[in-house]
Write a structure and sequence with these properties.
Length: about 425
Amino acid sequence: MTAPGATDVDVDEVEGLAVDGLRWLIETARETSRGGLAWTTSPSDDELDPMLYSGTSGNVPVLLEAWRHFGDDSYADAALSAGRSLADAVDGIDDDSLYFGRTGMALVLRALHEELGDTLAGAAADRALERVRSRFDGTRWGELFELMGGNAGIGLGALLAGDAELAVLAMEPYLRTAEQTPAGVHWAHRPGIEPRLHHISHGTLGIVLALARVGEATGRADLFELALAGAAGVVARDEAGPEGFLVPHSTPQHRPDVVEPISYGWCHGPAGDAQVFRLLRDSTADPVWPALADRCWHTVIGSGLPQRLRPGFWDNNGRCCGTAGVLALALDRIAEQQDPTDFAHVLVADLVARATRDRDGARWSNVEHRVAPNDLEPRTGWAMGNAGIVRELLRFVRLSRGGDPRYAFAWPDQPPVTVQAPGRRQVP
């Protein structure tokens, strides 16, 4: 399939843009009282943000990516410095989740131990996970009950950080809280809210992904079978078959005054749904899952993104809700299936065109069409800012040059492609 608007990009220019994005990111860091690097969500904010979603934890992976990509130890040194600030912060937050709290911090600290030999980071990861375990009430950790802020993310993060027992503890409550649907099961993402969300970030497919990974890794067939039932419930809601795949945000529509019923990104659309289907493809022999992943991609390519077709249609460059998240899937498909590269080029060209570049570096502004002025302040982190975008640009450069398609830090809800591991640097 040839992507609409296919274009060529200069790979060296993209790499230079990534370098400028890294420079802006590092220069916006704050130094803590104990000498570690830390970030706020955006430069004008005062409060340090340790989160995987939008703060320091989510910025460390792109520093590891840059260190491995360029072989420049200054990026590893910055990652280690950020690890010190995270280690100092693990006891001072009131959230245990993957994207918004302690589990995400623990996962990144574990990566610093494994990738760079930082034993203090490893000890802090252990301490963080023990703190998470101590705050479990027998069913949940807080109001949210999904991937980003609840049990599913805690289970997935704990598994990948090396604590399979905590992972199972987090996932077992889904066995007794699943609600039957005509085709499968789903869950409430928080108490007292009628709409049931369907996609990866706050909905059923995020829970499915965690159930499948934890169930397979720990030999818990009941968890894996529940994952398949959850996936079946979402697949039955498809409105774009037989060639495409498109499921509404929620049923009934959650907050219809502010939430788009249809989107296409990682968080609530087929770019994220396909990541779940990739995982189930790798965990079963059922041909339905790769076919569904292909259908998701068919819908993404035909949607019109990354064009801004109307206010609110496609106004985000970032990894969570925007262009960088779609690029992540495009690169997975190139690495695994030797897909044509034309649509990845379209996405990268759009990111290049929308970057602000000056002597401070490069950064991206997202748009909020309901306010004026509608250009938002550039953000630093994984979800909406430089860290998530630069990480995908660097991977695009490597793939374009025939290099390693894997990340230095595998994002927990993006199944890794399988290639030979590169070498690792050990710090003293």
